[in-house]
Amino acid sequence: MARNNIYVGLEIGTSKMCCVVGEVKPDGNIKILGVGQAPSRGVRKGEICDFTTAQTCLHDALVRAEDRSDVMIRNVFLSVTGPHIQGLNNRGSYALPDGQDELTDEDLDEVKEIAREVSIPQHNVFLHSIIRHYFVDGQEGVVHPVGMQGSKLEADYHIIHGVRSRIQNSIRCVREIPLEVEDVVFASIASAQVVLNRESKNAGALVIDIGGGTSDYVVYADGVVSASGCVPIGGDHITNDLSIVLNLPLREAEKLKIMQGSAELFYGPEDKRMIQIEGDKTFGGASVERAVLNEVIHMRVREIMEHVLAEVQSAGMINKIAAGVYLTGGCSLLRGIDTITAEIFDMPVHRTNSVPVSGLNATFENPQYATPIGLIRYAQLLDEEAPAVSALARVRSRLSGIFGGVRFFLG
User: Fold this and answer.
1) What pLDDT was estimated at residue 44?
2) 234-246 burial string, b = 16+ CB within 10 Å, else e?
């Protein structure tokens, strides 16, 4: 694959394995060359629980992506998720030596190291360390402090970390295909690259990526990442609830959720109507009251959104979200989910029905592919920001951080 124009995004999800091959055109737009996906097995809440089964599904998705893109895949950008992933903000402060009043590159490196020195659980590893703001003698909003006059330099970082062994399992699953992992990216960070534009990031936006087993979120405030995390509830939990309450097989519960379900509660004649579900050789059919169907969905959706709201409020970011909430991921297609989200957050809600891509696979322009396509955009931005860093060096840096205990940061 030619560097700097063709990238591969790989998502190991609870519901599906998805591999997207994309070409970044000279104008910055992404052209999808091929998409390969396979039903996901051996994965629970975004984490691998059956290594062999998960690897078989992953191999199927990769083979399909290669066949459809006519690209031999050797390197991928991998998304990770799971309730073990956490985000926090930390500020480091550095006083310039006596007699020095101009900030240098060395001072910048020093304050970065101080800002990144935060205590995380012993078995965790850093995924991202993202600069939010610099301050020079208390002056806010400094973008490039080197060369400025001052005596005190501060750096404000958003740091994302997770359990080393769980991240390592995902990487190992890919490396034994065998493929090289170019970088490891928290799923909602990837999704935000195609869901949000610069204006929404500057205004303040919350992206909620609702997958099968988890709901990841990231908050942008003043153009930078300011909060992130993962709620261990997703679309599969809704399906499981329907299966139990309505006494349906999981496959029928999933179809019913997608085709007939809504997160909104309606109190009228239509809500009392019965839905007839045809049987087959293994299932005798059923009759379901629409009101019950919608109430089950409503309660789970409300639970997801209230969990995210509580975490965003705890981070002190709820009043920074002027552009509103952006819903993505497969479960964001659920009817009425935007209405319930708007009610809970009391702000505008946007459903991202497509992402800006072109190519033969235009049918894949929908929210459930935001993460793997976002990985391609992320890869493009990473190369633009650090053109002098080779892909091999980036791989070694990242993997040494996850496997060898060396902390690697994305600045």
Assistant:
1) 86
2) bbbbbbebbbeeb
Rounded to whole angstroms, the Cα distance separating 96 from 206 reads: 37
Residue 373 corresponds to which amino acid?
I
For residues 92, 166, 8 and 328, what is the CA-based torsion angle, rounded to 10 degrees? -80
Buried b vs exposed e over 55-76: b needs ≥16 C-beta within 10 Å? Answer: bebbebbbebbbebbebebebb
| Cα 196 → chain centroid | 12
Task: Round to whole Å and give the CA distance between 239 and 227.
Answer: 29
Q: What percentage of the chain has pLDDT greater than the value 90?
A: 67
List Cβ neighbours of 99 (8 Å cut-off, separation of 6 or more).
none
CA distance 59 to 189: 25
Distance CA 227, CA 311 (A): 9
Query: What is the C-alpha separation between 223 and 232, in angstroms, rounded?
Result: 27
Question: How distant is the alpha carbon of residue 60 from its chain centre?
Answer: 23
Q: 174 with 385: CB under 8 angstroms?
A: no
d(CA 196, CA 209): 12
Q: Which residues of the chain have pLDDT under 50?
A: 1-3, 354, 360-363, 388-392, 395-411
Q: State the CB neighbour count (10 A cutoff) for residue 31.
A: 17
| SS3 call for 264 | coil
Residue whose tokens read 């599904």: 57
Structure tokens at 171: 């990487």
Nearest-angstrom CA–CA distance, 355 and 367: 7
Q: Where does 234-329 have alpha helices with state H?
A: 235-246, 250-260, 290-314
Residue 179: name the closest of 44, 14, 80, 58 by CA. 58
Give me 87's structure tokens: 């985000």
Distant-in-sequence, close-in-space partners of 122: CB < 8 Å, separation ≥ 6: none
